[in-house]
Structure formats: structure tokens, C-alpha cells
Design a protein that fits this description.
single chain; alpha/beta; Dihydrodipicolinate Reductase, domain 2; six-stranded parallel sheet; globular
Length: about 350
């Protein structure tokens, strides 16, 4: 990983939609990063975003932004179908790139993106923020300290009736919906907490008849260490308590268990009893209250990216790392289609 040897890094953002407004706000919390340009095919949207966040320049064409701006890195917050083209453009201009998840529209495209960046020596990171949520970092700490012993079983739940299509209507048009959009986050948490996956089996359903893709998925994974992990995700679940945007977790180990419940409550149970604690997200003044948990954690994720670029250290979520999550996403679809357990192969770049 190359070191930039700069304290302040200049960056641009491509895509000025719903999530970009919060991702840029998260960057504003870090003094060593300076936004110099934004880009969107809708020039008016780009102009308004530039004015809102004090970016000196705005563009409607990514190529023009790369040509005119001396960028240290770019964040790509566009539709997945455009990711490969923009990442290749960043490589051509030797600009480090942070790409929104999912990395690519299919596994082969995602692999090609990783290989292209690796060959050119251009750092490729993926904006995968769920594992950076404060409760998830705390869960990881509990596991690594050995508090509950060796984890042999896990359950991750994200079941909601939140009207996600109100803010992101394009999601209703996706033929691959909940696994590609939400499942990529939850599958990544599974890897983060429990390790790599040996095989999986997936079942899907479409409950909402007004969308094109699946809105329910259940995935059972056998991890390489022998543990079992069950993931259930749904945007069709009308429950007594709406938990959006929280991921509920139960991890069972040889010495005890830990449960992440509603409202960020952690219950740690051993043979000595149960103790509870709350792990709250940082409530920045720019977060949307409905999304606060998943927006506030972007600050620490961005800080990890920035330090990797400044110091030449390994970022936590590189293209290579996120490709492993992409394998699980597309294996889930294949498993649901074929109705069988699928092995997860070691990636070969």
C-alpha cells in the first residue's frame, strides 16, 4: 500500500443522491480530508450539493472532474451498474477510490475491478459501514477477549417494515433486492464476527407484489471454523417492535452468550449471571434520526480509509476483503435458485 505522505487529502464525490448527503457530512467530521469537487449526471443536484457542503467545484461528467481536479481519492456513490466504469476511470488517473457497496453488479465484474486496481497499484476500498456500528465493534471486542469462549452459533436478524422505498424508490426496480442491498451488510457482519464461510443455503420470498425483487431471505452458513450462522432479513415484517435500522444479534459460545437487543442493549451471559450495557451511536447533528445508527458509524469508517492512505497501512475493508462478502451475496442467489447448499471457494485474484 503506497503512502501519500500528506496531512490533508483532497477528494471528490461522484453521485449526489440520498446517501451521499450523509457520507459527505461524515467526511466533514474529519479535518484531514478536504472536499474539492462533487459530480452528478444531474448538474442541478451536483450544484446544490456543492453549495451545501462548500465544495469549490461541481461537474456533471466524472471524466471532466478527473481531468481538472488533482484528487487524492474519490468516493463513488452511484448505481452499482456504473461502478466498474468509474473505478476504471480512477485507475486511469491514478486516483485512490472508495466504492459504494455492492462492489459490482455481478461477481466477475467485482473480481475484475479488484484485479484492475491491484495491477495498477491503486488502492480500492469499499464503503461497508455496518460492521463499524458501535454495537458491532463492542461485540467483536467481547469475542476477542474470550468472554463467551469459542463461538459455535450465531443469529443475525434484520426484519422490518420500514418504508425503505420512500427515500430510495429505485430499490423497488431492482430484480435482485434485499440480499444485494441489505444482505450484503448483514453477510459482512457475519464474516466480521464469526469468520469466513465454508458453505451456505438460502431461501427467498417476495411478499411485496409492487416491487421486482425478493424482500425476504433466510441464509444458513457453516463457517470454516465449524460454527453455524443463521441470517434472516426482511422488509415485509410487521412486528410488535420496529427495529429499523438495528441488526439484532445472538452469539453463543462455550463459556456464555451475548445478545444485542432493541435500543442498543447488550446482554452478556456466563455461568456467573447476566450483565447488561448500552452501546449507543454518536448522535451527530447531521444524522437522519431514522438512520442514525448506520450513518454515524461512517465517520470511523472514513477515518480508517484516510489513515490507510496517509500512513500506507492496510484498511479494514479493501476490495479484496469485500469481494469475499460479494461471494456470499451471489452464492445466496444461486443457492435460492438451485435449491441446494453451495460451497464458498477461496477467491483467486
Amino acid at each position: 500500500m503506497r503512502t501519500m505522505n500528506k496531512r490533508f487529502l483532497k477528494f471528490g464525490v461522484i453521485g449526489c443522491g440520498f446517501w451521499a448527503q450523509y457520507q459527505i457530512a461524515a467526511w466533514k467530521e474529519i479535518s484531514d480530508a478536504k472536499l474539492v469537487a462533487v459530480c452528478d449526471i444531474d448538474a442541478d443536484k451536483a450544484k446544490k450539493t456543492a453549495e451545501k457542503f462548500g465544495a469549490p467545484c461541481f461537474y456533471s461528467q466524472a471524466k471532466e472532474m478527473f481531468e481538472k481536479e488533482n484528487l487524492d481519492f474519490v468516493e463513488v456513490i452511484t448505481n452499482v451498474e456504473t461502478h466498474a466504469e468509474i473505478v476504471k476511470m480512477a485507475v486511469d488517473y491514478q486516483v485512490s477510490v472508495i466504492c459504494q457497496k455492492p462492489l459490482g453488479p455481478d461477481l466477475e465484474t467485482a473480481k475484475a475491478m479488484v484485479k484492475t486496481c491491484r495491477k495498477a497499484g491503486v488502492p480500492l476500498f469499499v464503503h461497508e459501514n455496518f460492521r463499524w456500528q458501535a454495537p458491532m465493534r463492542r461485540l467483536k471486542e467481547i469475542i476477542e477477549r474470550g468472554t463467551i469462549g469459542n463461538v459455535f452459533k450465531g443469529k443475525l436478524t434484520f426484519c422490518s417494515a420500514f418504508p425503505v422505498f420512500d427515500n430510495q424508490p429505485i430499490l423497488a426496480e431492482n430484480e435482485k433486492f434485499i440480499i444485494a442491498d441489505l444482505g450484503s451488510h448483514i453477510l459482512d457482519i457475519g464474516r466480521f464476527l464469526m469468520g469466513e464461510v465454508a458453505n451456505l443455503r438460502c431461501l427467498t420470498q417476495q411478499v411485496n407484489t409492487e416491487i421486482k425483487g425478493e424482500d425476504v431471505a433466510n441464509i444458513l452458513m457453516e463457517m470454516k471454523n465449524g460454527a453455524h450462522c443463521f441470517i434472516e432479513i426482511s422488509y415485509a415484517s410487521i412486528l410488535e417492535k420496529e427495529s429499523f435500522p438495528e441488526t439484532l444479534v445472538l452469539l453463543e459460545g462455550s463459556k456464555g452468550s451475548v445478545k444485542l437487543e432493541h435500543d442498543f442493549v447488550l446482554s452478556i451471559t456466563t455461568r456467573d449471571g447476566t450483565r447488561k450495557e448500552k452501546v449507543l451511536p454518536v448522535m451527530y447533528d447531521w444524522v437522519n434520526p431514522d438512520y442514525a445508527l448506520v450513518q454515524s458509524c461512517m465517520v470511523e469508517l472514513n477515518r480508517d480509509f484516510l489513515q490507510a492512505l496517509q500512513e500506507g497501512k492496510q484498511a479494514e475493508i479493501t476490495g479484496e476483503d469485500n469481494f469475499r462478502t460479494m461471494q456470499l451475496v451471489y452464492a445466496s442467489y444461486e443457492s435460492a435458485e438451485k435449491g441446494k447448499i453451495l460451497p464458498i471457494k477461496e477467491p483467486n485474484f
